[in-house]
Amino acid sequence: MRKVVFMDFHGTIAYKSYSDTLHQVLSEAHPDHLYTQSTFRDLLDGSYLWDSPEIAHPQYNKPEAWWSHMEAKLAEAYSQLGYKQDALQMVKRFRELYTDANEYLIYEDSLEAIIKIRKMGWKIVIISNHVPELKDIIKAMPFGKYIRKVISSANIGYEKPNPKFYKYALKKTCRPRKKIVIGDSILADIQGAAAAGIPAILVRNSLFKDSGDCRYFAQDMMEAAEIIKENFK
User: Would you state the pLDDT for residue 211?
Assistant: First the structure.
């Protein structure tokens, strides 16, 4: 590939949070509960593999191994709230929902922006700290046919911004002559890309738009596509 846009997934072109999904499942099983999404955010803060990107996890590269590790964390959260008896059943339901493309919110500008970037001659490769099934999730989305490759941290043993994640992505795309990263995380996407020598566009996350790490900022994906058109010909 000669020209590649490495594009983040969650928070950049689509959205579905762990805490929202855990709360959704609990509400299905126990409609009278009094917990909120923030309850799960607090319980699981620091528990995800991407919370420690400096630590490689090749032992979880297979889907069942990855899910076994993750499901234990999620089941413990439900147990701490007093739902130990059906915690495993709720975790299975979580997995079902989180791997269903129809459950995701797709940002309204994502498809149009992706098509515009493709028409400019760029290949699009998704790079994301996500679940093993990300490739299938994206394939089922409206923009799936425009995506050349999908790289999920769950399948390679490294989380962004670990330099080995970006090294892997570059190797898998034959070290493209021109490359850009687009993402919403100042740490995982912008700083991670900078460490790998790749220019990056921060999208949607205006909190860090004036950061010294952020050279390019876009309010949405269409603006990001325009930045590519004007600055990366």
Answer: 74
